[in-house]
User: Fold these one by one.
Assistant:
Number 1:
Amino acid sequence: MAGGDTRATGPLGLLYAAYERRLLAGIDHASLPAHVAVLADGNRRWARANAPDQPLVVGYQAGADKLKEFVGWCDEIGIPLVTLWVLSTDNLRRSGEDEVGPLLRVIEELVLELALRHRVQVVGDLGLLPKTMADNVAAAERATADLPGIHVNVAVAYGGRRELRDAVRSLLAKEAASGTDLAELAQTLEIDQIAENLYTAGQPDPDLIIRTSGEQRLSGFLMWQSAHSEFYFCEALWPDFRKVDFLRALRSYTQRERRFGR
């Protein structure tokens, strides 16, 4: 079972399509976000509600199918950069092997399928993943590095605090290799030096972050990068997230006055 397009056929389908066109027409395309990030939350709850007699992997697969749709929507409307959070370090610690194993297989297949069409970058601590999976997704990343079009970050084994730790470790290692004294570094360290060592180094920060399932928190997602992001929270469980929900999020974003902390 998948959480694909829930639009009905017949008269209801025509009404849905008309509403979608109306939403699209109401969006200021000149003000679209350059980078959209999504916390695709609610896959397990969706599985329990829609497939109570089946394993939770049904929900993970429905969520993966929706993520592929979501990337297509972003590509279609002209958003050049998307970040999908599919597995946190907390998920890895909390869940047993009987749940994590099937989830990891769904995620690996998702990355490989996205890599057939788009440039894919895996952001997270690949050292926490099984070696075969880590090798496969890293190979997919290398193979798509020069593809034009939309850039898709897939956040796997990702935690915001871990990313900051890894950025500081990387920065310290580079400075030590160049002979910089630690006391000197403490006096001269700049914000940009940390940013240059994040998983997303060189990318623009997310303009819009969407979270589904009714949760209204970031849970450590892109802690550094989200300092000036706009947030949109949606009640729908991720597999039930529709294109009209996405268009509503974009409409809300384009109607806001961004202040960037000013």
Number 2:
Amino acid sequence: MDTAIAEEYGNINSSVEYFLKFKIPKEARILDIGCSYGSLLYKLHEFGYTNLQGIDVNKKLIEMGKKEYPVIKDRIEYYPGDIIPFEDNSFDVVLMFDVIEHIPDIHIFLANQVYRIIKKEGKFIFQTPNKFINIPWEIIHNYSLTAYKKYHCSLQSLSSLRMILENAKFKNIILEKHNIITDHNKKKLKKNIGSLGLPLLHIIQRMPLSISSNFWGNCKK
């Protein structure tokens, strides 16, 4: 397995764990926006989900994913990033893990595209970093006050995330924490800050939702 894909695979496990708690029917039509290599879809395929689709703006990642996961190669496709190439009311579930923060004008994208393709009473499941935690981390990591803005152009706070979801007309909005004390995060922090990584993870895990490292959530159309 490609090293980059292997690293992504580790983080995908948290997304799979969060997704599975909703007990989505195996035949549900599911779209993963920003699917990258397709690792999440591959894992869901292994869990028995049969009606999967993924799209990403990076052609290179899509091509790598097709080679790495041939069993789902016809289920992951490139798209230009503006208009989602599916008809209205097409999906039972739409996923966006670590994607919201990368999309310019995310409030428009959620309202005009994501909401549009979800079936009535369908579910939107997502995860995105907290701007108040992510910005300091990225500044330290990049030794730059502005570099993060090139790839994290739509970071959200707890209140702003709820607001853009409400404005997009989603209902039953739930924003919550999820376990961050994972092997993936332990390795990531150990690499960047050494032995302080594990204690820091436990501290962050106990923080109130408004200052937690990431927001996990779900809502309905």
Number 3:
Amino acid sequence: MSQDQAVWKKYLLVLYVGMWSVILVAACIWLIMFLIGTLGYRQDQTPELNVFDSVVALTEQKVVRYLGDWEFLEPKLPGHFHHIGRWYQSDKWSFCVKCHGPTPHSKAPQQRAFLNMHNLFISCQVCHVREQEGVAPTRFGWVDITNGQLCSNPDMAEGVWGEYGAKIIQLKGAEENPQPVTLDEENDFAATFRKRVDDLDDRQKVIGNRFIHRRCVDTPVHCGDCHNSEEVFLPYTALGYSSERSAFLVSSEVVDLVGRYETFYMPNLLKADEQVQKETGEETQ
């Protein structure tokens, strides 16, 4: 091998080593920058996003939604009018909500929103159960929705109307030791019923359902029973409502609204089923 060839191979070796050295150094620099950018990320370093990206990024935050016995996460959009907290406080005491959920009224489209709103602060028993058949209750108190224990009147000046952490319930027993009207046997039965319902036939399900609802009255309390100026079902002031609020709940404005609400008529234009039947009948004729 000539001297020139040896020198040339030496230069090639140096070039080869230098090239790989540059590649390795570049790779190390990139890795360090990547780790710093990932592990060292802070919210105040977020790059500016366009409108679409900023809205999509918000969906990574989650908010808890409560539906009866179930809670699930859904995207949270701050400031959006549909997202204002849990909305329905979690009632851990009432066994009714375990099947019916916190919005149990669904049969009457005209009234269900109004009735479900009242379900925020009134126990199911108040409107649907009687301690003695045919005898309306006269004493009421508040029960904590987390444990079912009687509690003092809530501070209604705090928070959102209806979200008091407690619900109104009728009372039984001696005046000095009142107790809430509860459905203990039905509660125990319903717990077993829910566990074994998949193993029951249709007839057994009907019988079990009847037992759970055996003390429910055929005619529950109506809006006008509480909102009238003559004989009010609930003693508002005794339950902690201010005199101004109590007077408003039986005022002519509310009474008139309730009267119109209970006799609410859906415009024919919105009665899709009837409209279809009418058109079908005309075509048949």
Number 4:
Amino acid sequence: MKKLAVLLLTVFTLTMILAACGNGGTATSTTKGDGSAAPASEGASDTKTGKPKIAVILKTLNSPFWTEMRDGIKKEAEEKGIDVEIFAAQDETDLQGQVKIFEDILSRDFDGVAVAPLTPVNLIPSIVQANKKGIYVVNIDEKINMNELKNAGGYVLAFATSDNEKIGAQGAKAIVDALGKQGGEVAIIEGKAGNASGESRKKGAESAFAAASQIKLVDSQPADWDRQKALDVAANLLQRYPNLKGIYAANDTMALAAQQAVENAGKAGQVVVVGTDGDQEARDSVAAGSLYATIAQDPAEIGITSLNKLIDAINTKKQGSVDAEPETVWIDAKLITKK
């Protein structure tokens, strides 16, 4: 009986050990309190499932534009049964923080990474390293300086974004149309100086204003995408140019601040303010008859397109090249007015 008991105990122990060894896990994406993704559990891997393992680096999660993009990516990934980890810098000045995120990703076994760089050049060395490791790279929203990237020996497969110059022109054209034949003085509140998206929107707005003979562009100042700075800039513009009739802002955060400055100055209904991005707060303001219009981008679709480009490249084992021109995918933006 003792020998039988020992034999049964041995068999039971071996069975439990084998069961534990066979219970392999799959890496899952978790999210920290700041909205960035936490590392998957140690030892977990997608190699057993054959699913692509993808990372996404956004600029920040401090604005609705980026949170909508994150949510769109997460929903698409869930529908496709793919694990995606989403990271973001603390804010749009955290250049080194974004580089560190990319460096950490390079030390793990990702198949692809989609990046929205804070500047056209800050992630170029990391992209070159990703290329060397065979990690596919897709560019989101803020265009990388492709000449600098090529000179460094790197490349991306695709670039998904809205046409920011066209967006700026749409915003300015909305002001021109609202002012009609009478026209008047207008101003631009820019994003952060040197930021490619903001500079393109500014350029588009300048072109549209210049094309209208009844419009005079009197000033253009940066407010760094910041609400308080935009409030101060708009207040100064209204004081300096008492006949100002229109303000185009390169994002909705600054547009809402400009509208507040207009109302604070007792000029509600006298100055047409148009923003950019189509944030919900801006849409609500337009519906209420406060903000005149916003140019609504589709950040979720931009993110989804980027994700699908990576999935396709991974599944088809697409070959990239320094000399190949990246595929550009334009995502349309629409003018949103009270009408």
